[in-house]
Amino acid sequence: MKILKESSVFTRRQFLKGSGVLVISAVFMGIFAKVGFDAVAAQEDVVQKRVAGLYSLDEKMTIRKSHENPEIIQLYKDFLSPGEIKPVSDKAHHLLHTRYGEEVPGLIAELKKHPIEAA
Amino acid sequence: MNANAKVLKHSGQTRTMHWLHLIVCILLALTGIGFYWDINWINNLFGGPANASIVHRWSAVIFVLGPLLYILFNFERFSRFVDTISNFTKDDFGWIKTMGGYIPFIKVDEVPPQDKYNAGQKVLGGLIIIGCLLMIITGFPMWVWRGVVAPGFLAFCYNIHFWTSIILILLVLGHFFLAAIHPKSRVEFSAMMIDGYVDADITAEHNEKWYATLKEVE
Q1: Which of A28, A70, A86, B140 is most buried per CB count within 10 Å?
Q2: Which of left, alpha, beta for B196 (phi over 0: left; psi -120 to 50: alpha)?
Q3: Domain B74-211: which CATH number of 1.10.357.10, 1.20.1250.20, 1.20.950.20, 1.10.1740.10
Q4: Are strands B6-8 and A3-5 parallel, antiparallel or unpaired?
């Protein structure tokens, strides 16, 4: 059987075009990467300042831990777990946690059925 | 005519790269569509949306490295490909006018002679290169810089990534139809997907200008 193949001659025009596509791609990606890295570097300074600001604000707070907040302790004693401080009591879990995604229709049905208890 | 003659159109490495890109593109398209539109049955094929996202990212790495390695090891072949698809002559515009005789309601007396790739394949090749570059440069920030770059910039990347992928998926579907289903052109299907060879008669008819440059080796 006769087999035909293309010529293996590699012309200067072909070389320039192949190289051109690679060079243009590399330059294009390089510019994009430079913009990105510069944006990341610029952001870094702002992020550090923001972190320092948040820590500084936190240090100035009188109450820094939620479980030591007298209002929360009182809320547990009076309502969420009457007579004691019991985090994640049944009532606290029920009232303080929400539901997501496929559980939402069930929550809506529950609220409609028992509006006061479910709330 | 050469009833028994065959033309080697695509080398083993080209076919391997095409197969690799085909598989990776299917994975990328499926996972991308799955988690972009939150289609559970597609996501579940990969073990849920989070896993689909991981498959998408690592498939993208192969999507970049595969052709890159191919180009580095087959630079001459790649350069010839770029030369062919960027060489648009009067015959190519003639092919575009007649759409190569593929569109039933466009009356065609004669389709102008074509290179190794016809004008439609040339346009597709150019769009695929540009599209892949856009997917790569917008996908990178979406993966690596998502927590640090401005939300507006990230949204810009998402939009470019999304619309480029839609265009690429439509182009690839068109390419699949013409290469594997259309009776006029599916005769070349095995050249890229199996052994690399096309009947000389078919090449003489579909790629007349390229055929004239071929030389006999056996």
Answers
A1: B140
A2: left
A3: 1.20.950.20
A4: parallel
Query: Which candidate from B5, B79, B133 shows the least CB-CB separation from A1?
Result: B5
Q: Is the Cβ–Cβ distance between B127 and B1 less than 8 Å?
A: no
Q: What is the pLDDT of residues B131-186, one digit of tens each?
A: 999 999 999 889 988 877 778 888 999 999 999 999 999 999 999 998 888 888 88
Instruction: Report the alpha-carbon distance of residue B163 to residue B130 in Å, rounded.
Output: 13
Query: Are the beta carbons of B82 and A18 separated by less than 8 Å?
Result: yes
Q: Please name the residue that has the structure tokens 């049955």.
A: B41
Q: Inspect the interface and report whether the beta carbons of A5 and B78 lie closer than 8 Å.
A: no
What does residue B215 show for φ and ψ, rounded to 5 degrees?
A: -125, 150
| Tokens found for residue B22 | 């085909």
Q: What is the largest CA-CA distance in chain B?
A: 64
Q: How many CB pairs under 8 A join A and B?
A: 99
Residue B1 pLDDT > 60, yes or no?
Answer: no
Distance from CA of A34 to the nearest CA of B (A): 12
- Tokens standing for residue B34: 């799955």
Report d(CA A119, CA A110) in Å as an integer.
9
Q: What is the complex's ipTM, to 2 decimals?
A: 0.81
